[in-house]
Amino acid sequence: MTGHVPSLPRTPAARLRWALADGWTLTRRALTHWARQPAQVVVGLLFPIMIVLMFRYLFGGQMRVPGGGGYAEFLLPGMYAMTMAFGLETTFAAVSGDAAKGVTDRFRSLPMASSAVVTGRAAADLLHSALTLALMLACGLAVGWRWHDGTARALWAIALLLLLRFALLWAGIYLGLVAGDPQLLVAVQILVWPVGFLSNVFAAPSTMPGWLGAIAEWNPLSATVSATRELFGNPGWGGGSWAARHSLLLAVLWPVLITLVFFSLSVRRFRRLSR
């Protein structure tokens, strides 16, 4: 007996509905895994909160905020952005784990949209990141952080943080597909952590050597940090460079560019697996 193989949709609208339905199916798969393994999710949520508490109470007494103001209000926007950036590691681990177990190859053998695997993972990780950010915001409020320029601007800042995470999760998906081995997570951390700290989160780019400060100022993470500090009404480093004066623009352009590049690379890589 031969099974019935459904015909592929022919019109663009039908293909889009097909891709969205398949993507949502795989999103629900990831959410189901988290529901059955809550300990892993809880640990992932508690780690950034622990980092915030450490920096706030262990180092905060020695920190001097540029231009005055509370250290928590200076620190927290940077910590929010770093948490979104380091989420790339979670995405890499999930994608490379599926590839190593043969799950990804199994998906490729099914009559499903080729983009569904990557879009499903992206949607699931973005939902997880939104929950993580909500908990961090609550933690920030508990340790003295506040926004000062109205709810609308604060929501724009939150949107920029999620936009950064959305862009970088595509980088995580692509690297996971290329590596195909979750043990290579250490190599990704060696890449991600220096990029995270080579920014304006903890130190002003103006205090760094000229070439290093320029890299820090043009770091996509720095753009999001500067933009969110401005939108929240929190203190920042300032600066007279073009990147510092146009951080809001760069906080949108950088994630859009990263998304365009790594989304196309991810879908192409998925289609070429095991060829």
Kindly describe this structure.
The chain is mainly α. It has one domain (39-59, 68-271). Helix content is 74%, strand content 0%. It is built from 11 helices and no strands. The two termini are 29 Å apart. The model has no long low-confidence stretch (mean pLDDT 83).
Please sum up the structure shown.
Keywords: Antibiotic resistance, Cell membrane, Membrane, Transmembrane, Transmembrane helix, Transport. With 275 residues, this protein is mainly α. It is built from 11 helices and no strands.
Average pLDDT figure: 83
How many H/I helices? 11
The helix-and-strand class reads mainly alpha
Task: Calculate the terminal CA-CA distance, rounded to whole Å.
Answer: 29 Å
Strand content: under 5%
Main beta-sheet strand count, sense and barrel state: none
Helix content: over 70%
Outline the fold blueprint.
Blueprint: H1 12-36, H2 38-59, H3 71-101, H4 103-108, H5 116-142, H6 151-179, H7 185-197, H8 210-218, H9 220-232, H10 242-245, H11 247-271
Helix pairs in contact: 1-5, 2-3, 2-5, 3-5, 3-6, 3-7, 3-9, 5-6, 6-9, 6-11, 9-11
Q: What descriptors fit this protein?
A:
275 residues, membrane, single chain, Transport permease protein, 11 helices, mainly alpha, transmembrane helix
